[in-house]
Amino acid sequence: MTIESHGHEHEFEPQFGLPERLPAGERILWQGSPDFAALARNAFHLRKLALYFSVLLVARAATVFGSGGSAGDTLNAMAWPVLLTVLALASVTTLAWLTARTAVYTVTDQRVVMRIGIVLTLTFNLPLRSIESAALRAGSGGCGDIVLKLAGSDRIAWLHLWPHARPWRLANPEPSLRCVPEAASVAATLAQAWSGATGVTAVPADTTAADAGHTRQPLWQPSPT
User: Phi and psi dihedrals of 162, rounded to 5?
Assistant: First the structure.
């Protein structure tokens, strides 16, 4: 399997989200980007970070006040920690926004194209025939992740993909369309395109179960050997 990768073509892309114009007869079935709020919450863990810093700030205030400090002493002691907390959360929020703004996912009837990266823009062409299996992890608000498992021995480095990769799959990274709006509809489109390209019927995802438990539901599985 050959995974095509292109760098720094964003400024010159002849067609939005694509490193080159599609060949005659190939059609774009869907194109979109991650939802910023969902990406900040799920990929960058903004809520968890905010909770973590909040606990630290409360502990800091309790320590100063419990040591006999006045309300003024407590406020003075909290000034720098609060400022650093705001800067940290603002930095993570900005990174999530830039990630969502610069990423474009494209599904055609022949491939999945991932244009990702903020400073160093990369585009990965994943032919549908090279995708062994896929799964949908639906979340709140209709957003969800579509995880792709590549066939063969070729791999894309996890650092090249992050955060557009399945979490905690470092040895065998799995490219993911992260926090896609209307993920169930996109997953159905992808499964239908994969069936058309491979001639194998894809297993439909149980999106009700995925919504209820945030579990990964297969779109299609590897063919039995």
Answer: -50, 135
**pLDDT tens string 158-201:** 999 999 999 888 888 999 999 999 999 999 999 999 999 998 88
Write out the residue range of the structural domain in which residue 209 sits. Answer: 4-34+103-220
Torsion of CA 11, 160, 183, 34, to 10 degrees: -50
Can you read off the two tokens belonging to residue 168? Answer: 């905690």
Looking up tokens 């960058």 gives 44
Instruction: Quote the tokens at residue 24.
Output: 């005659």
CA distance readout (Å), 206 to 78, 85, 135, 189, 201: 49, 40, 10, 15, 16
Task: Place 212 in a pLDDT band, splitting at 50, 70 and 90.
Answer: very low
Q: Which residues pair with 220 in a beta bridge?
A: 134
Judge whether 225 lies within some domain. no
In a shared domain, residues 206 and 132 = yes
Dist. CA 125–CA 17, nearest whole Å? 11
How many residues are there in the chain? 225
CATH number at residue 178: 2.30.29.30
